[in-house]
Structures are given as C-alpha cells and as structure tokens.
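for the writeup, i need someone to sanity check this before i put it in the appendix. the sequnce is what the collaborator sent (i think, or maybe the updated version? ugh). structure was predicted straight from it, no edits. if anything looks off just tell me and ill rerun, i have time this weekend
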Amino acid sequence: MSADRWVPLGVLGRARGLGGECWFRPFNADTDALHDGATVRLVRDVGAPREATVEALVVHGDAISMKLVGVDDRSAAEAVTGARVELRRGDFPPLDEGEFYHVDLVGLAVRAHDGSAVGTVARVASYPSVDALVVTTADGEREVPLVDDYVASLDLADGVTLTADALDLG
C-alpha cells in the first residue's frame, strides 16, 4: 500500500464545549494511529477535502475528543461535524515483526494450501471473538477466520495461503 494513501480512521461527532473540540468516533476503538500533531484530512460528502493538524486528543473514559488547530470555538467545531478523518498510511506508527494493519491486507492474493488461486482479500471483518478475512472468490465472498487453524501463512509481499480446513468453510 502506498504511504501517501489516505486511510479513514473515524468521524468527527458533535461539538464538545465552547473551545472547538469535537467528539471523535474511531472506526477501530483500539487504534493508536492518531496523535497530537498528526496531519489529517477531513472529508465531507460535499466540497473538497481539507488537511488539518490534530492539536489534542483526549480520552474521556470510552469516548475521545479531538481538537484541531484553527478550530477554536463551538461554531468552527460544528462546521466540521460529520467529517471523516483520514490519515496517510505512511504516518501510521511502525509495527513489530509479524504485525500488520488490517488496511494492508486488502487486495492481497489468497491461495489454497496447494498454491491454486482462491481470490483476493476484500476487507477484514472484526468480530468480538475473532477477525476474519473477507475473500472475494469466483463464487462470491467467503469469510475465513484470521487464526492459525485456517491461515497457513500471511505475508504482505506474498499474500495469504489457507490451510485445507479453511476451504471446507461454508
């Protein structure tokens, strides 16, 4: 994936207080990609996207508020309410060996244990008990649990190889 690609991380909710903060609803509650000083892109249904700098992120229990540089009062915060917040893939924190971001799996080739083509990863679905690869095949989409019993290997350069058991999923 290109380091310049913008990746959606969440949506700005309603204004919080009078100082320009907004509630932030991340698509992944466990994300740690955003930080103070990050350059983000705000995307609305209408109008051109615009870049902004995160002045502060504050955790309030299970909720997060975001303050952007230049958004200094309630009216300015209300003007960005509903904007999708995106971050360049190249600005994500580095990962340890063997770790990956779900967004990096999209588009990977998926092969059976014998090397034959199965399809491509369309997206990753996150469930309370397990994440699953949503694989587009010739017969439609299939979900494959992202666990060792079904995924023999996963390499961002070589794609995904499934175990024999993975192909028996309905």
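The mean pLDDT is 89. DSSP finds one helix and twelve strands in the chain.
thx in advance!!
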